[in-house]
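Hi again,

Forgot to attach this to my earlier email, sorry! This is the prediction with MTE bound. I've pasted everything inline since the attachment limit keeps bouncing my files.
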Amino acid sequence: MKNLDSKSHVRGESIYLDDIPLIQGTLYACVFDSAVAHGTLRSINTADAEKSEGVMRVVTAKDLIGENQIGGVVPDEPLLADGEVHFQGMPIAIVLAESEELARKAVRKITADIEPLEPVTDPRVAAANGDLIVPPKKFIMGDCEEAFANCEHVFSGRTEQNGQEHLYIETQGAYAIPIENSGLKVYSSTQGPTAVQRAVCRVTGLPMHQVEVDVQRLGGGFGGKEDQANAWASICAVGAQLTKRPVKYALHRMEDMRMTGKRHPYSSDYKIGLNKDLKIIAYEVTFYQNAGASADLSPPVLERTLFHATNSYFIPNVTATAYSCRTNLPPNTAFRGFGGPQGMFVIEAAIVHAAEKLGVSAADIQRNNLIDDGDEFPYGQKAESDAITSWTQGDAEFNFAHLQKEADGFNDESKYFKKGVAMMPVCFGISFTKTPMNQARSLVHVYTDGSVAVSTGAVEMGQGVNTKIAQVAAKVFGLPIDKIKIHTTNTLRIANTSPTAASAAADLNGKATQMACETIRDRLFEVAKGLVEAEAVENLSLEDGHVYRNGDRTSLDWKSLVMDAHLQRVNLSEHAHYATPGINFDWTTAKGHPFAYHVYGTAIVGVTVDCLRGRYEVDYVKCCHDFGSSMNTSVDNGQIEGGIVQGLGWMTMEEVVYDDAGKLRSNALSTYKVPDIHSVPKEIAILPLQTNRENLAVLNSKAVGEPPLMYGMGAYFAIRNAIKAFTECSPEFDAPFTPEKVLMNLYSE
Ligand code: MTE
Ligand code: LUZ
Ligand code: MOS
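Structure tokens for the complex follow:
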């Protein structure tokens, strides 16, 4: 079944923040932000802006009624700069005006006197200065020191990974409307309606029951709106509170790129030890995360880097250390994979390094160390592993050796075009690593005409979560999908939501919906039992809009049953709560069972590099992917394709450039290159892993949002192999592999 939104998207009828009809009297906000990455804010001159045409008010930190604080994990992030600026793009003042244009015009009339301080942009420099967001985190398994002493081969090195701009098609934005008794209704383009509600309450001083947050859908989030929607909603809320008028702010693309954080760049050191059979015996890794100016989600992102530091491999001795380093960049944040990809890149680089030195294929080392059933991850959880099955099933279908031979043959014949192939296994843990976040609720109403309305905490952002939740309700009630309507995500209907993140939204909210629907269904069965004279409710079922008794269709249809139940005063509504069972994690020991399950997969990535120009094309990404048992192959294949292309973009062409002064140079689509239709691999082949395992996913259909991004990482190593087919060199592990960098490596000798 197609994504339920596909038709309204194509017709341009889907509603986003910018499509919400505005109330008369609406004001437009625009932010004046710091042009300096680090400095003391001596004074702000807003006089000219206040006199500017159409300006209602200019707001600075001193005007806030509540707290000037929006830091969710660590309270280190003022909404508006006060005393000091920490990054270029940091909001300092808010202009509220009668139109967008007038607001932007007035912003240009504001000046700030900022005494510059030395900016830090390099995480290793920040770490050396002791400027950490939180104390270092560590995972230890076995004894690395002793193990290295006994290793046949030991290699060490360093990797660099750059950030990534989210480039959701819909930029950040919000619309806040004053309601009676000082309350606020806030429309926000957010993955976390409750996070927005909390931030708004903090800056306005309102209690949570006075603030309603509503989300129809997002034009993409990719993690960038898990926490970073809070600022813009807070700005609108403060404006609405102070002026008693509705306030809207939808950021321009360049404002968004300049003022919001991105994927975290990392700089890392590794040391890998192998025995003579190519078993990895020991792995030591140190991660320096570039957190930016405030914590945002950096601490949990850092933790997930540790959780995925060994990717799909079993390594008996591991010491992984991670530093979250405070720099003068916009606060970096969640991005599809949430630190996991950063952890995986380093182990993959270490394996490639070892393979190169030992004169073997990296695939031999990868294959030889895949985690097996019962093996323990460094954080204590025992694997129920499909690392090996996904590799062998993928290899059986796509034949790595043959693809490698084909590339070798091509390379023998071709002087200036070279092909490279790489294997990219992936293992990604599903659940928020912070156990309490793994809960969700669903509110289901069956109306007397038989139609069904569902509200959950899940936010639709193109990933198809609403389609999946509707499928769950349709399945339990035995109804066609058009009888089910998924309503907006709203904090009045569903309270205390976790953000739609960690790929877990369909699992958590889908399970809650399943529970709510089953409760209503069981009540209806009690009614039906009398109506169709069944001996027991166990003999009843609901299918294609009818009640079935002992597998036979009765004349009792859904609508009549519902109406009858209502007349008998049976409750046709239910609010259900789901909390993932069996998960835990204890940071005092850094051990536990944090994930409901893992998603496994193996990709083979092939590229062709133009060795005169440094350009490249991705010929194919062929993967064997663990869907469990997919409840929607159309949606899931779309997630795989999109994730792969986004991963390729991060590893190859997307290059976030800040200069030493902390100014974003890649601040528009002319200077920041994202994959377009021409960068999509010529072939993406998706083979579902064959498995009969039970899992904790909704209807056994495993989470699919984030894991495929990591297949795209294979392109980096495939490009590296192609370069090595052209010239004797050993490119550094410095992602992304932009065409410029490829060219430099091709002619580095
Ligand atoms: N797909 C689309 N089209 N748009 C998005 O913003 N976000 C990704 C992924 N797929 C995203 C997407 C991220 S970062 C996550 S965590 C998951 O979707 C969240 O949704 P889920 O939990 O329903 O998988
Ligand atoms: N967000 C979060 C996430 O808060 N915790 C997580 O573990 C996580 N994982 C992936 C993506 N977002
Ligand atoms: Mo996704 S990074 O969990 O929003």
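The longest strand covers residues 417-430. The radius of gyration is 27 Å.

That should be everything now.

G.
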